[in-house]
Amino acid sequence: MSLQAAMPPGPLGDSFAWQADAFHDYDSWALHVTPGDVAEIEAAATATKTGGLDIRKIDKVDFPLPGLAPRLRTLRRRVLDELGFGYIRGLPVERWDPDFRVRVYWGLSRHIGDPVPQNRNGHLIGHVIDIGTQVNEVNKRLTQTNLELSFHVDSCDVVGLLCCATSLSGGESAIVSGVAVHDEMMRTRPDLCAALYGPIPMDRRGEVPAGGNGWYEMPLFHWHRESFTGFAPVRQYVESVQRFPEAPKVTPLLAEALDVFYKLCSDPRFCLKIPFRPGDIQYLQNHVVFHGRTAYLDPPPPKPKRHLMRIWLSASDGRELPPALLAKWPAIASGARRGGAVIAADREWIVPLEPETPAYG
Ligand SMILES: [Fe+2]
User: Fold this and answer.
1) 8 A C-beta contact, residue 80 and residue 315
2) Backbone dihedral angles phi then psi of residue 319, each to the nearest 5 degrees
């Protein structure tokens, strides 16, 4: 079976094909929580704690937010049906202990989707922090370093990031409309756009399903049942896949297509830089919005290191997904929990509260 996907007849040009200019005034469109919202959120989180609820078991109904929920519903629609991204701003994270902070983050996120594991150890919350992973540790992901991360997607419908502490310098978070970049490539270099609808070898970075290879192939652009799906790999993972002698070589045409693609992702017309502050949550729909960050420097102790908390969410009422995604995702069907990482047979889902918990090993 060929992995070559069908293509749309022309540029898509829908609401997902936004450009950066319309959103620079971040404060004008983020969802700002009010003191009343915070009181409601803290009451809901306290009730889960006093009721002895395991964080993993907290469902949307266990985290009632009568005042805030309608605005969270609007944010969810914006993420899934309109723009592919949404932001909550102003949570007082600094006054919450690690357990309470995760309860709040989890409870809010339950209004957006269903958590799925994000690594082979079954972590439902991931800590994006520099724990000294080296770039040449090819079985690890680069989120545990302070290095630049190219534009990419995570393997779930919606990825959330809660900012707990910022860097001393750098570490700028940026997003881009994969649809706008696709449309620009289709208009200006249709030959290169077509190349990204073909298979691209990608490194699994050690997250190998039973019986599988250390690498897989996946197109970057998909067109399935009149619906677009983008799957941008971390660029370094297309480079490191060449450590597998049997992995297909990147052709000159594909290399040029990837060059143009990543260049357009960083083009100021398309790339929206986000001034992430402690207490902000970013939710992104991976199928249409790609994300990256610049390299950064942590402040010296005793100041806390840059620290983001990640959650991967399934939104099974979201767009229908192309079968090719099964090369990476354990499940893609609508109506059931989908996406996430394949976890090792001897592991169960866990919620690590502390950033030092190693994600791998
Ligand atoms: Fe990511």
Assistant:
1) yes
2) -60, 155
**Residue 3 in domain:** no
- For residue 207, tell me if it sits in a domain: yes
Q: How far is the CA of 161 from the centre of ligand 1 (A)?
A: 9
Assess whether pLDDT exceeds 90 at residue 137.
Answer: no
Q: How far apart are CA 283 and CA 87, in angstroms?
A: 6
Rounded to an integer, what distance in angstroms lies between the CA atom of residue 220 and that of residue 239?
15
In angstroms, the CA 42 to CA 143 distance is: 29
Q: Please check whether residue 202 is in contact with residue 6, taking contact to mean a CB–CB distance below 8 angstroms.
A: no
169 CA distance to ligand 1 middle (Å) = 20
Instruction: Report yes or no on 345 lying in a domain.
Output: no
Give the distance (Å) from ligand 1 centre to CA of residue 356: 19
Q: Are 125 and 160 in contact (CB under 8 A)?
A: no
pLDDT digits (tens, 9 = 90+) for 240-277: 999 999 999 999 999 999 999 999 999 999 999 988 89
Closest CA to 207 of 155, 149, 134: 155
Distance of CA 291 from the midpoint of ligand 1 (Å):
6
Distance 290 CA to ligand 1 centre (A): 8
Q: Which helix (H) or strand (E) holds 44?
A: helix 35-50
Indicate the helix (H) or strand (E) that contains 50: helix 35-50
Distance 74 CA to ligand 1 centre (A): 24
Say which CATH number the domain at 273 has: 3.60.130.10
Burial per residue of 211-250, b for 16 or more beta-carbon CB atoms within 10 angstroms, e otherwise: eeebbbbbbbbbbbeeebbbbbbbbbbbebbeeeeebeeb
Q: How far is the CA of 360 from the centre of ligand 1 (A)?
A: 16
Number of structural domains (the chain) is 1
Q: What is the pLDDT of residue 17?
A: 98
The range of the structural domain enclosing residue 89 comes to 30-327
